[in-house]
Amino acid sequence: MESTLAQLNQNPFPYIEDEEAAAKRRSRITLYGQWTLGILLILLWELFARWKIIDSYYWSSPSTIWKTAYTAFTEGTLLEDLLYTSGSTVLGFILGTFIGALLGLSFWWSYYYSRISEPYLIAFNAIPKLALAPVLVILFGIGFSSKVVLAFMMTVIVTALAAYSGVKAVDKDLEKLMYSLGAKRWHVFTKVVIPTSMPWIVSSLKINIALALAGTIVGEFISSRQGIGRMILYAGQIMNINLVWVGVVVLSLLSILMYFATVWIEKLLLKGRSAP
C-alpha cells in the first residue's frame, strides 16, 4: 500500500495509452509475429529437406516447389488453371451467397412458409453435397458450369440458414413501432429486417469462400479440362510430387487471398456493426 502511494506521489499523472494507438501497436506486433512464424516454418522446411531429416521426395522443399512453380507458370498452364479455379469459385460463391440471402430473408414474409420450409432446408443442408458431385458433373458437363454449380451448392444453404437466423432475431417491438408509425411491410423489410440480418449474412462469408473452393476442387478432381485440381490429379498420376506440392501451395495462397477479400467485404458491409 505504501509503495503504491509512493509511486502515485512520484508520478501524479500516470501515462494512459490511447486506445487507437494501442490497437495499432497490437496489430503491428501481431503482423510481425505472423510473418516471423511463416518465414521460420519455411526456413525449417527447407533445412530439414536438405539435411535429410524429412524425405524430400514426399515432402519436397520450398526451393524445389518455387522452381517447379516457375516452370509451370512460364512453360505450362499454371496461370490458366489458377484463373479457371478462382473464377468458378468466386462466381459460385457470389451466386450462392446472393440467392441464399434472398431465400433466408424471404422467410420473414410468411410464418407458415418459413415453418413449412425450415425442416427441408435443414435436411438439404445435412446432405453431403460433395457426394452429389459426380451427378452434377454428368448433368452439367465437365466444363466451367459444373464447377460453378458445385460451388453454388456448397454455399447457398449455409447463407440461407444464416439469413434465416437473422430474420428470427428481428426485434418484434421495433416492427410494431414501425407499423404504428404508418410503415408498410416493404419499409419494415428494408429498414429493419435487412439491417438486422446483415451481420448474420456477413458472418457466413468466410465459411462460404472455403466451401466454394472445396466444391470447385472436388469437381475438378472428378472431371475437368482445366483447373488446379486437375493439375494436382494429373501430377499425382505421373508421380510428379513436386507439381502436386505446387498445386497445394497455390491453393493455400488462393484461399488466404480470398479469405482476406471476404474480411474486407465484411468490414465494408457492416460499417460499424458487429457480427454475431
List the SSEs and their pairings.
Layout (H helix, E strand, L loop, with lengths): L1 H9 L8 H32 L5 H4 L2 H13 L3 H29 L4 H16 L6 H8 L3 H25 L3 H9 L4 H19 L1 H18 L5 H10 L3 H30 L6
Helix pairs in contact: 4-13, 5-8, 5-11, 5-12, 6-8, 7-8, 8-10, 8-11, 9-10, 10-13, 11-12, 11-13, 12-13
Walk me through the structure.
This protein folds into 2 domains: 2-50; 60-270, MetI-like (MetI-like fold, Orthogonal Bundle), CATH 1.10.3720. With 276 residues, the chain is mainly alpha-helical. It has helices spanning 2-10, 19-50, 56-59, 62-74, 78-106, 111-126, 133-140, 144-168, 172-180, 185-203, 205-222, 228-237, 241-270. The longest helix has 32 residues, at 19-50. Helices cover 80% and strands 0% of the residues. It has 13 helices and no strands. The mean pLDDT is 86.
What key phrases describe this protein's structure?
about 280 residues; mainly alpha
Q: What is the number of domains?
A: 2
Q: What is the helix/strand order?
A: HHHHHHHHHHHHH
- Computed Rg: 25 Å
> Strand pairing plus helix content: what structural class?
mainly alpha
Cα separation of the termini: 43 Å
What is the tally of helical segments?
13
Q: What percent of residues are in strands?
A: under 5%
Look up the CATH topology of the largest domain: MetI-like fold
Counted beta strands: 0
Report the CATH C-level class of the largest domain. Answer: Mainly Alpha
Instruction: Write down the overall mean pLDDT.
Output: 86
For the biggest sheet, the summary is:
none
Q: What CATH architecture of the largest domain would you give?
A: Orthogonal Bundle
Instruction: List low-confidence stretches.
Output: none
Shape by Cα distribution: flat
Helix residue percentage: over 70%
